[in-house]
Amino acid sequence: MKNFHSLTIKEVVRETPKSVSIVFNVPEDLKDTFKFTAGQYITIKKEIDGEELRRSYSICSTPNSGELKVSVKEVADGRFSSYANNELKAGDSLEVYLPEGKFTFTPSADAGHRTYAAFAAGSGITPVMSIIKTALTEEEHSKFVLVYGNRTPEETIFFKELLELQASYPDRFFVEFVYSRTQNENSFFGRIERSTVNFVMKNKFKGHNFSDVYLCGPEEMIDLVSEVLQENNLPKENIHFELFSSSEEGEVETVLEGKTQITVMVDDEETTFVMDQKTRILDAVLNQDLDAPYSCQGGICSSCIARITEGKAEMAKNQILTDDEVEEGLTLTCQAHPTTPTIRIDYDDV
């Protein structure tokens, strides 16, 4: 992809025993290219043991900080996360795709006295951290409540920084820690559950009119918290979420038996070939050695979005695009199967 750029590592910061933050050097001529909105992510490309790996990581710095920083939590059998936590160092280079994503927060100079909330678990704090700091620094009267779940304080990414934010904004920033393996004074024990959400909304912060709530973490937590928030009369459109993983496999309702002639536009180059309708569009495109954008290939990021300009396709699952966006022709190509004899897909027009 033409939008990948080689960036050198300025610093690797140890956050917890199993997570690091990576700070990139962004050259002056790429400053505009890597401008981002709070909550967005970047895709990192790295060849390890002869295999190209692509991973998406949320930006945890703020747009006005002049810094491009992500945090990577080491996971079991995670090839890139293990490399980042144990081998990556200042001076190394990584291929980085420009910022993208729909889980965003744009501050308003005339926001008034708004109150926001976020529920995050584990590494789900990374985009939320950017959103929190942006809201606090760019909206001088706004307040922010964070409910943050982890196993222990030692495994809590940005633990010290969150306490410092609390000290800097004692009347505007409030954090409720939730620990599943440690009982601490002034923190919840267990996981973020229905009772946790109700306590925050109905007791601890009763009377606060929350304008928007941001959720990031496991799918089960997001579904539960979203349900309880709506029970507490928060409109669904004011609940924003981003999945880091999904248990939903998904399937199409249409019987897929034929072939489709597909025309793909990517990087201003058009390619036409015939594909099996049972194959997902992204897989077919990559099998043609076309450098289409992608990252998770599981329907939880938005890297592979393209516009259908002719024909139709059906997604096995969609947890990202709104009904209006689908109506406009946007589709997640990692989930989409063509359902018409011909189809035209444009990766450039999104």
Task: Write the SSE topology.
Layout: E1 4-16, E2 19-24, E3 41-48, E4 51-58, E5 68-73, H1 79-86, E6 93-97, E7 115-121, H2 125-138, E8 143-150, H3 159-168, E9 173-179, E10 188-189, H4 194-204, E11 210-217, H5 219-231, E12 239-243, E13 259-266, E14 269-276, H6 281-287, E15 305-310, E16 313-315, H7 323-327, E17 330-332, E18 336-338, E19 342-346
Parallel strand pairs: 7-8, 7-11, 8-9, 9-10, 11-12, 13-19
Antiparallel strand pairs: 1-2, 1-6, 2-5, 3-4, 3-6, 13-14, 15-17, 15-19, 16-18
Helix pairs in contact: 4-5
Describe this structure in words.
It is a single chain. It is built from seven helices and 19 strands. It is α/β, with parallel strands linked by helices and 350 residues long.
Q: H/E series, N to C?
A: EEEEEHEEHEHEEHEHEEEHEEHEEE
- Briefly note the structural class of the backbone: alpha/beta
The counted number of beta strands is: 19
- Broad shape: globular
Strand content: 25-35%
Low-pLDDT segments, ≥5 res? none
Strand order of the largest sheet: 4-3-6-1-2-5
Could you describe the largest sheet, including whether it forms a barrel? 6 strands, antiparallel
The level of helicity is 10-25%
User: What's the helix count?
Assistant: 7
The overall average pLDDT, rounded, is 94
Domain 2Fe-2S ferredoxin-type: 260-350
InterPro entries: 2Fe-2S_ferredoxin-like_sf, 2Fe-2S_ferredoxin-type, 2Fe2S_fd_BS, Beta-grasp_dom_sf, Cbr1-like_FAD-bd_dom, FAD-bd_FR_type, FNR_nucleotide-bd, MRET
Keywords: 2Fe-2S, FAD, Flavoprotein, Iron, Iron-sulfur, Metal-binding, Oxidoreductase
Protein name: Flavodoxin reductase
